[in-house]
Amino acid sequence: MSNIESILTENRVFEVSDEIKKTFSVSEEKLAEMRAKAAEDHVGFWSDLAREKLSWSKPFTVGLDDSKAPHYKWFTDGELNVSYNCIDRHLQDKSDKTAIIFEGDRGDIERYTYKELHDQVCRFANTLTAQGVEKGDRVIIYMPMIPQAVIAMQACARIGAIHSVVFGGFSAEALRDRIVDAGAKMVITTNGSRRGGKTIPLKHAVDTALEKGCEQVKKVIVYRRTDDEVEMQEGRDIDWLEAEAGMSNYHDPVAVDSEHPLFLLYTSGSTGKPKGVQHSSGGYLLNAHVTNEWMFDLNDNDVFWCTADVGWITGHSYVAYGPLSVGATMVMFEGVPTYPDAGRFWQVCQDHGVTVFYTAPTAIRALMKFGADLPKQYDLEKLRLLGTVGEPINPEAWMWYHDVIGQGRCPIIDTWWQTETGAHMIAPFPVTPLKPGSCTQPLPGIDAVILDEEGNELIGNEGGLLAIKQPWPSMIRNVWGDEERYRNTYFPLEGKPYYVVGDSAHRDADGYFWILGRVDDVLNVSGHRLGTMEIESALVSHAKVAEAAVVGRPHDVKGEAVAAFVVLNVDLPEGDERDALVQELRNWVSQEIGPIAKPDDIRFGTNLPKTRSGKIMRRLLRAIAKGEEITQDTSTLEDPTILDQFQKK
Ligand code: 6R9
Q1: 419-431 burial string, b = 16+ CB within 10 Å, else e?
Q2: Single pTM value for the model
Q3: Looking at ligand 1, which residue's alpha carbon is closest to its atom 22?
Q4: Using CA atoms, how far apart are residues 207 and 498, in angstroms rounded to an integer?
Q5: Substitution candidate for ligand 1 out of 275, 313, 416, 474 with most atoms within 8 A of CB
Q6: Any one cellular component term from GO for this entry (predicted)?
Q7: Which atom of ligand 1 is least distant from the CA of 517?
Q8: Chain centroid to CA 381: how far?
Q9: How many other C-beta atoms lie within 10 A of the C-beta of residue 341?
Q10: How many angstroms is it from 420 CA to the middle of ligand 1?
Q11: Which end of the chain is more exposed for a tag (fewer CB within 10 A), N or C?
């Protein structure tokens, strides 16, 4: 059996009962109608949605302006305010509805109704204006997962300032790079954060970042989240509450052009420094809005919890903007999944009656290690949809999520998308029949295709480079300040309109997409293409394996050989027993996929090297697999001691 076929030996199909299907807002018929309409009139489909779903202070007349392709503009002559759309328009009928339920690390709980959120956002918008921030200015937000982060983002949107949230786990260096690249005028931060029972300082990184090269930053607003002392620099640093004192609860939202940048979010590419992905106001909000309705079916009685940090795109579209735009109730959680114990996520779901839960495969696999008994101690009856995002989900984790957390009742919404796409691109609707490990089909109005290496479109049941053929409203508008990099990175096929994603994917006979991983994660072993994912999936399906990451390493004969980094869910045996386990795992992979996929090298550690957002740092693993010294930046690594474990053979 060939490599790529093997991932596709996953042929189980899961459908929810007709009874449950009836509870979802978008029926199969309605979905078919939407697909037909989008196929017939791409721009009309999105334009009608933009009119129906968003409130415009000045209606648009132009759907898509592609005169400067690949620099696309949507709804160009329209004006709106994103914060108005997320908050004010709900005040008429939902002003007392809970917008945010916040649970802190220590179990402290706060609730904000839409009216309270409105007042807070207005006060902070007035504060920003009083501190000299104007429309178009860039503001850095470097904060933990607390409601004030969302309030700060919404307040920026309200005055037309462009925010750039920098994940609180990034170092002072990384923060400085982003401040400088964005040309930010202000930084909003906290004295510290609370995670896993500890307090972690944050503001000091801002101080370090601002030591050089950031002269344009005139003000730093500091929210006191912890009781720890914080050094305030006279004339520059201002306490959030002091600055806000006396500010009005009313603020007239500033109408901006649909194309006005809402935010920049820095993301690493395969080369070079992080790119400032620039998103628009109208187009971005439209896709954030409709995907919360389509994929998560958010209705009046739902309590939605997306576990992503606001430092990532998921925390923008599925925390700060999308759920509010649809008028939902959402949970924000400050802590970590394993504090005070590995039942924390399930406790939060239970206590707040979460109905729709959205997390990453890495979290699922980490929690799987603790077994099925822990989640069973909590009442998860209210859950009705489960989402996943960030990386391909291996069928093993999918099944656990489905059976143990969803109790077989909840569809798994595997959402494929990127920082650059703004919102979900390939994902099931709740009524879609599911296949474990497949993100299923492109959304209506998303024209996903598969290309060969030369950029020719492949039709039918084939694997290749994933690309998007037609522009969509929430697409990246630019790499901040670098149009050439935008064109070269995303539209590399001269004269062809394809947005090239950087992932490889396979489309099966039913038109379902299977993401095989980043293009640079595809191995070529003896001329056979192997997705690292499928080998990982095979390893993880072994009873003793909790997690695995696979990379390629150069090999004289085969071109590339497979190196596997494995986390066991049993104690690591020593001596002969260890060798026997290595052999067992090699044979296991051979048996699961074929001898071609057998790892040459298997190493063990207590965790994989991950970024603090949970992405496995494969470039480090590749260096280790090659036996190279690590010269790369490891500042984003969650636990640097992991590297030593894996370096020992
Ligand atoms: C939203 C987000 C984007 C990359 C993307 C792909 C991987 C994300 C996935 C997935 C398979 C999914 N990815 N979701 N792969 N199935 N459901 O994660 O954005 O941080 O920019 O990462 O993540 O490789 O290209 P971002």
Answers
A1: bbbbbbbbbbbbb
A2: 0.85
A3: 418
A4: 42
A5: 416
A6: cytosol
A7: 24
A8: 26
A9: 10
A10: 10
A11: C
